[in-house]
Amino acid sequence: MSAAVLLGLDFGTGGAKICALSAGGEILHQGYEEYPQYHDRPGYSEHDPARYWEACQRLIAGAVGAVGGDVAAIAVSCALPSLVMVGADGEPIGRAINLLDRRASREVQELTGNRIEDYPALVSMLWLARHEPDAFATAAKGLTIDGFVAMCLTGRPTLNRSCAAFFGVAYDIRHCRFDETVLGELEIPADKLPELVDCDEAIGTVAADVAARLGVPPGCAVVGGQVDCNAAWIGGGAVAPGDFQLNLGTCGVIGIVHDRPEFPSTPAGRQVVNIPYTTDVRRVYSAVAVTMTGGQVLRYLRDVIGAQERADAESLGVDAYDLLTRQAGDVPPGSDGLLALPYFMGERVPLWDSTARAAYVGLSLRHGRGHLIRAMMEGVAYALRWALDVLREGQLRVREPLVLNEGGARSAVWRRILTDVLEVRTTTLSRGGGAALGDAVLAGVAVGALPGFEAARELCETGDVLEPEPGAVAAYRQGLGVFQETYRALRGPVASLSGAPEAAEADGGG
């Protein structure tokens, strides 16, 4: 199978990526397509699911056109939680719900007994059953984005055992199964859930008509898939306990691979996201600290105040994000007294606060565009530090340096900020990385084109190791305390503005 091509597709909140990998370990092609997010009502965050399939077809056809049609296998990942309801014919019913959606606050509170922020797929299904009962009754299955795309390729609706963790309270990650008693208490019919499969399980082949349209050969396998953070870390060579990586896509995600099945039940484990890890969903896990708004803050600034950067980027053939972060690099640590909370859509670890919102504090006439950009980047770093401290309390084995994998984490300015705020040595990937590559590796392992997940390490090369700078560390330690104090001080006013006064009364965030 030396000539085989392996395709990985990752569907994020902002767009989809593809990576074509040879069985010999050469990255042959990469592509990206952005798609819109819809925020038509307060708390809503949706996609048009048709755009997933359209993007998938264009990306695969583009890859085949670039590298040829000898595609042996395809694997797909996605950002989670997400939900695509489909009818018996496989057609979507309504828009897809993505991970930024916060409409089901009442259902979350009822299910958990507190104001926990996370919105797993079962909560969204419960909301749909109550508020759109006709559509819910018509729906045959509730799928993740990757499950929907895999079904479009094969005709088979499935759910892999890493993504299943994001269905929430009824999924037992220790035993990799749904608890039908809990489903019954939620009044969610078990038959509306897709069939569970392993990440590296071949779930079928690309349907003949689809294969002909895309240019892939008959018999091209589609495998179970994985959650996007797992995919990115595998793409970055994280395949053993102790591996430690950071993604800065829409969200900011720090993960530690471990083999301690008791960790999710510890005090630290109960504050973070726990996911069965792709390499062995029954024995290996990733402990994940998530800040809801990571690289999304730069997309927001690009779209809202970055018209000039967008125009300059197009004329110069450069990235608008680089033009934004270059301005941030001209501002000293601490942003000359400007502080930003990055909570545009609530927060996960450690606050679990759906009502948290973004804010600038300390803004004065001396502050310019660079200050606004850097302060928000520092705010994301502070949020990640607060989350990382929870993982540190869990005393999981960690091997430094922290590998900054994809997205904004590859920015030199953000890397310097993260290194100093997190107080860890960091490195970046000079070769490898990214969820789509991790998906291509998964595809290769599943069909035997790659010998095992250890092959991912051979695909990756790291660059220099950056050490924390003592002066900046001291400034950021002080800034972290102010950041935490500011979040607590603004909870009441933010809750009043959002019409959720109960948020000001609940405990959270230390």
Describe the overall structure.
With 510 residues, this protein is α/β, with parallel strands linked by helices. It contains 16 helices and 24 strands. The strands form seven sheets. Strands 1, 2, 3, 5, 13, 14 and 15 form a seven-stranded mixed sheet that branches. A seven-stranded mixed sheet has the order 18-19-17-16-22-23-24, sandwiched between helices. Helix 12 packs across helix 16 (470-498).
Features:
seven-stranded mixed beta sheet; 510 residues; alpha/beta; 16 helices
Question: Would you tell me the overall average pLDDT?
Answer: 92
How many beta strands in the DSSP annotation?
A: 24
Number of helices: 16
Q: How many angstroms separate the termini?
A: 54 Å
Q: How much helicity do the residues have?
A: 25-40%
Short précis:
The protein is α/β, with parallel strands linked by helices and 510 residues long. Helices cover 37% and strands 21% of the residues.
Sequence-ordered SSE layout with sheet pairings:
Elements: E1 5-11, E2 15-22, E3 27-34, E4 46-47, H1 49-67, E5 71-78, E6 84-86, E7 96-97, H2 105-112, H3 121-131, H4 133-138, E8 141-143, H5 145-154, E9 158-160, E10 171-172, E11 177-178, H6 180-186, E12 195-197, E13 202-205, H7 208-214, E14 221-223, E15 226-227, H8 228-235, E16 244-248, E17 252-258, E18 273-276, E19 285-291, H9 296-305, H10 307-316, H11 320-329, E20 339-341, E21 359-361, H12 369-393, E22 402-407, H13 412-422, E23 426-431, H14 435-447, H15 455-458, E24 461-466, H16 470-498
Helix pairs in contact: 1-5, 8-14, 9-10, 10-11, 11-12, 12-13, 12-16
